[in-house]
Structures
1.
Amino acid sequence: MQWETVIGLEIHAQLATQSKIFSGASTAFGAAPNTQACNVDLGMPGVLPVLNREAVTMAVRFGTAINAQLGMRSVFARKNYFYPDLPKGYQISQFELPIVGKGQVEIMLDDGAVKVIGVTRAHLEEDAGKSLHEDFHGMTGIDLNRAGTPLLEIVSEPDMRSAVEAVAYAKKIHQLVRYIGICDGNMQEGSFRCDANVSVRPVGQAEYGTRAELKNINSFRFLERAINFEVERQIDLIESGGEVVQETRLYDADKDETRSMRSKEEANDYRYFPDPDLLPVEISDAMIDEVKSALPEMPDMRRERFESEFELSRQDAESLTASREMADYFETANGIAGDAKLTANWIMGELSAAMN
Ligand code: ADP
Ligand code: MG
C-alpha cells in the first residue's frame, strides 16, 4: 500500500526578553543553578504575577510577521500538573484564547515550488525549571533558573507531508523569529525546541491517521531523523496488523529510534482554568500598527529584492538572506565594492570558507 505522511509541529521559541514573563528576575543563560528564580517564578503563597510588556510586544511582532489574526482578547490560564521542576504545581499558559490566531508561512521545496503552511495559533506561556539527570548518580538535580522564562508556542496545521517539509517549515520559523529579534534561536541552549506530531494514512484517504507526538527535539537533523524513524515504525506496525496508538514518544538520538513515554490513557488532565491573578490581554489597533511599522524587511521580501535589485540568482539571494546579519553584511559590503555578483561570490565562497 502507498502511505502518505502527515505532520504538524509545535515549536517553543524562548523570547529574548531581559526578565521573566511575570517577574523581574533575569533570563540570562548559564547562571549558577537556582540563583535566578524569584518567589513569583516559584509561585510562593501570596505572590502576584505581573505580565512583561515586552513579551506581549514580541508575540504581536510574530503575529504581524506571519499575517496572523491579532487583536482578539487573550486569556492566561493555569495548566495544572505536578512535576519536581514545577514546584508551584501549575504552568501559566494560554488555552482557549491565544494572543496570536491563524496565520501562515511559505516554504520552498526542492523543486523550487512554494508551499503554504498554516499556523493555527501562537500563545504565550512560562517555561518550567529543568531536571538534571546526568551529574547526580541515582538522583535528579533541579535547576529552577528557567522557571518563568517567556515562551511563544507556535502550533502549525497538519500541513506537512514529509520530514523534509517539516524541517523546511521549522527552519523558516527559526529564520523568522531571529529576523524579527524575538528569539536567539539557540537550539543547544534550548531556546528553540520542536515537538513533531506524526501520522500516516493510505494515499487517497481523507481522514487523518492516529498521531504520535515526538517531544523536545533540539536539532533540525534530529527532527528529520525522528520523523523518518516514526513514519517507518507506524507503517510497519499497521502493515503487520497492529494499530497506532495516540501517545507521546521520545526520540533517542544515540539509538536513532523513538520510544513510548506516555499513552493517551495516561495523558494528563490539566484542569485548565483562567488565572485569577492575571487580567485578560487586549491588544489595541494602535499597538498593532506600531509593531507593524517597526518590523524589519522580512526574509522572503528581502530575497526577492536581492534577486531584482542585484540581479542575483534565487539560490544566491536565498543564501545571502538566510540570516539578517548575513544580509546586512552583504548590503554593506556591496555598497563599498559596487559589484553585487562579485561580492556575493566572495561572501559565499572565500569568506564563508574562512569562517567555517
Ligand atoms: P494537543 O493539544 O493534544 O497537542 P492539538 O490539536 O493542539 O493537540 O494538535 C497539536 C499538533 O498536532 C498540531 O500541530 C496539529 O497540526 C497536529 N496534528 C493534529 N492531528 C494530527 C494528525 N492526525 N497527524 C499529524 N499531526 C496532527
Ligand atoms: Mg501537543
2.
Amino acid sequence: MVTVLAGGTGGARLARGLLDVVGARELAVIANTGDDVEMYGVHVSPDPDLVAYTLADVIDDQGWGIQGDTFQVMDALERVDRPAWFRLGDRDLAMCLMRTELLHAGERLTLAHAEVCRALGLETEVIPMSDDPVRTQVKVRGDWLPFQEFMIVEGGKDGAPEIEDVQLIGMDEAEPSPEAIAAIERSEVVILGPSNPVISIGPILAVHGIQETVAECGVPVVAVSPFIRGRSIKGPTEDFCRWAGLPVGTDCVFEAYSDLIDGAVADEPAAGRAVHVTETLMDSPDARRRLAQETLEFAATLAS
Ligand code: GDP
C-alpha cells in the first residue's frame, strides 16, 4: 500500500505511474484542496480533479480538464456578459455538479469526490486533505487574492506580480479527512509527489494531524523533487519557493520537509543527503512508470 501526497500535474503524473506499478487498490492519493473554489454555483476541486482525470487517462493535453471536452456553458455565459474567466468544460462541470449536489445533501467532500472517481471508473482512492474548507490566498500589490484569481486573472502562471504573502484561510479549524489519516496509517511507503512544496504539498501537511501521522507512521517517507535540471517546468513553484525562503533545486525538498523525509528522488544530488539520482521528467507513460518503480525501490532501501 502506497500513499502519495499531490498537488496538480507533477504529483498526478507520479500517481499515474504508481498505479501501473502497484495496482489501483494498493494506491491512495491525498490531494490539496487549498485551490478549491466555488464558481458558477458549483464546488470546483482543481487538484483532486486533476489527479482523478490523470489516473483515469482522461486529462486534457493542456494539463487540466477532460480530453475532448466542449465549452458550451462557458460560451453561453460569455454571450450574456457573465464573467467566465475560470474555464470549465461541460463534462468537467458535470463532475462538479455531481460533487456539489452531494455536498448540498450534507455529504462530506471526501465522499462527494469519491463519487466523481467512481463516475470515472477509478478504483484508486483520491482523498481531499480535509472535508473542511481551506482556501489559499496570495497577497500581491497589497491585495489578498483567492488562489485561482492570482493564477488566472493576475497571470500567476507567468510569475508576473511579486508574491508578498500567502495565507491558508480556514486551516486552523480544518480537520484531516479520516480517509487520509487511515490511508497513511496503512501504508508501507509515503511519497511526497513532485508538486509545489509551498502551495500544494505544504497545505496538505499543514492540516492538523497529517504531518504528525506521516512522521509517526514508521515507514519510509520519500519526496520526489519538482525541479528538472534545477528549474520548475510548470507554474509558479520557483516564485513561491523564493517567497518562502526555500532554495530552488534538490535541496528544496530537504528544507521544505526537513525531518519528515528519509530521502529524495531527484535528477541532481544534494550534498550530504540521501538522494536517488535519476531522470525525473515524466513526459511519457514509460517515464512515469519507471520513476514510480525507482522511487519504490529507493524507499525500500531506506530505514524510516
Ligand atoms: P500545478 O498545481 O498543476 O501547478 O502542479 P503541482 O502543484 O503539481 O506543481 C507543479 C510542479 O510540478 C512544478 O514545479 C513542476 O516542475 C512539477 N512537475 C510537473 N511535471 C513534472 C514531472 O514530470 N516531473 C517532475 N519531477 N516534476 C514535475
